[in-house]
């Protein structure tokens, strides 16, 4: 299957009481979020809600109507993670229906923090983080509110933990905590239909962004978590995947193994790269040497920042594995391969 544009997407009845509704992400190459509606006697429960934008809202409302669902009847919204293309419209759905919003407690805490911080403070935090990673001044965002493009998502009414059953009368929808893409990312196992809502954790054609923010944190290991989370969903048995982007696919475990392999190779190449260098490298220098979908010189500053976050996550995992050393000195952190 190849990537198809949003214009070619339609709401689909998947059987087993679940509809998928494509909701556009205007201006984003990802195209759309697949919002799922699960029928229940108390009203449908949505998995994710889509990007907060008038066009997206219209698509969600009309798509649900195609499925015979009045948005005012929605019982609840489970958000796989706090990113705006997933959680953005959850608040709007709650306004229209009185639905609850549920997400993992770790992402709920991030949303609470985002709602408590003014956007100009978020911007200066970002500039400071980029500097410490070794970003040259031309890569720093202009203006203070670099992160203020979207309002933070609506706070959660319910906080989920691994193993919880979501409030979905008559059905069994279990929370599988899959940290990595975000600390509180969850997959949702529809046990009565052998399906897994995978959010961004396992997508058929692409892999999710795994980054560390701020880049030089040494108390977390999101890539290590992500790899473990891939193993975890691979162990759930044979499940069909209902991802939040692209298209549905039959075998979660096989795709999870493929993605794990992709990152292990990337880790190996990165370690080899560092081992060739006599001098320790900053996070920025490391990112500039790695392979991205475009040459480094053509990446705009925003994407360089994301690449640096991804480089930082790979460096951190190698550090946790004991094959890399962090040299804190000065105002920016550097990394060096350990001799084996
Ligand atoms: Zn995401």
Please tag this protein with its features.
340 residues; alpha/beta; Metallo-beta-lactamase, Chain A; seven-stranded mixed β-sheet; four-stranded mixed β-sheet; 14 strands; 34% helix; binds zinc ion
Give me the secondary-structure topology.
Elements: E1 12-13, E2 18-24, E3 32-38, E4 45-47, H1 54-66, E5 76-78, H2 84-87, H3 90-97, E6 100-104, H4 105-116, H5 119-132, E7 158-160, E8 173-177, E9 186-190, E10 195-199, H6 222-234, E11 240-243, H7 252-275, E12 281-282, H8 283-289, H9 301-320, E13 324-327, E14 334-337
Parallel strand pairs: 4-5, 5-6, 6-7, 10-11
Antiparallel strand pairs: 1-2, 2-3, 3-4, 8-9, 9-10, 12-14, 13-14
Helix pairs in contact: 6-7, 7-9, 8-9
The protein binds zinc ion.
Residues 81, 83, 181, 200 line the site of zinc ion.
Please describe what this structure looks like.
It is a single chain. With 340 residues, this protein is of the alpha/beta class. The chain has a single domain (6-275), classed as Ribonuclease Z/Hydroxyacylglutathione hydrolase-like (Metallo-beta-lactamase, Chain A, 4-Layer Sandwich). Helices cover 34% and strands 17% of the residues. The protein is built from 9 helices and 14 strands. The strands form 3 sheets. The chain has a 7-stranded mixed beta sheet. Helix 6 packs antiparallel against helix 7 (252-275) and helix 7 crosses helix 9. The longest helix has 24 residues, at 252-275. The protein is globular, with a radius of gyration of 20 Å. The structure holds zinc ion (ZN).
